Inverse folding.
């Protein structure tokens, strides 16, 4: 048998297996029950069901994400510069911080900041419980973004820095005016990925018991799971999933576009 014939035969079998699995799924599923449980008209066809998810949940999710990303980026830049410092203690402290928080689940850090720190030190971070949760997100995000920024700074050609220094610029001015702008341009795609991860990580804040007006998408959907027009069905969870996708898919597509653009520029 010719190689091309064998390849077409193999592809035909794979297509047939896939079609068989899809048909089995279509005929085995209880579509009436799926429609009633996941796509209840009372939820999808009612603005009252969507309004808290959008005006409270989605709004707070974006606010929390923006705060955690902006503050985390500032802390990450400090950590990245410390890790690149010629002074050993600065490198050790930055390395210890990054390895510590990258090695812990974000959920554990949020619980620790929300419950452990107030009990141990009799002190609650500014903003109360939600402030403690945001501080935990900032600390974890900073650890990941610090490594991204460090890699971006090291990816800037040394010739750029040497050219700036030969013009009489100080090392600090070279870093601010020459190295960092190029480094940020290089790491825009991974930083955008980190932003998307933060959007999803805000759902972890629900474990520390945030107040009604501070609820993010997942908490609002979870509450509607047991009360409201869609109580007793999973429709609110499907609505929450759709809202997350509406927010994250454009961002992931932006990352893909930026990566393609960077590849063409090389």
């Amino acid at each position: 048998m010719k190689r091309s014939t064998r390849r077409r035969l193999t592809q035909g079998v794979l297509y047939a297996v896939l079609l068989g699995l899809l048909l089995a799924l279509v005929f085995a599923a209880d579509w009436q029950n799926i429609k009633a449980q996941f796509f209840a008209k009372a939820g999808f066809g009612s603005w009252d069901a969507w309004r808290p998810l959008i005006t409270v949940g989605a709004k707070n999710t974006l606010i929390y994400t923006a705060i955690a990303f902006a503050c985390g980026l500032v802390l990450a830049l400090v950590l990245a510069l410390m890790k690149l410092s010629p002074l050993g203690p600065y490198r050790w402290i930055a390395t210890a911080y990054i390895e510590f928080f990258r090695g812990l689940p974000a959920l554990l850090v949020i619980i620790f900041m929300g419950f452990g720190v107030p009990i141990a030190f009799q002190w609650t971070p500014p903003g109360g419980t939600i402030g403690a949760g945001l501080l935990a997100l900032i600390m974890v995000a900073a650890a990941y973004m610090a490594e991204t920024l460090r890699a971006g700074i090291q990816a800037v050609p040394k010739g750029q820095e040497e050219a700036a220094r030969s013009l009489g610029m100080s090392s600090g001015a070279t870093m601010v005016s020459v190295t960092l702008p190029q480094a940020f341009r290089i790491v825009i795609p991974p930083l955008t990925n980190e932003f998307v991860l933060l959007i999803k990580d805000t759902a972890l804040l629900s474990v520390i018991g945030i107040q009604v007006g501070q609820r993010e998408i997942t908490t609002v959907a979870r509450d509607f799971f047991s009360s409201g027009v869609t109580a007793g069905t999973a429709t609110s969870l499907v609505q929450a999933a759709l809202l997350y996708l509406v927010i994250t898919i454009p961002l992931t597509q932006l990352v893909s576009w930026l990566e393609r653009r960077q590849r063409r520029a090389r």
Summary: The radius of gyration is 24 Å. The chain has a mean pLDDT of 88. The chain is about 80% helix and 0% strand.
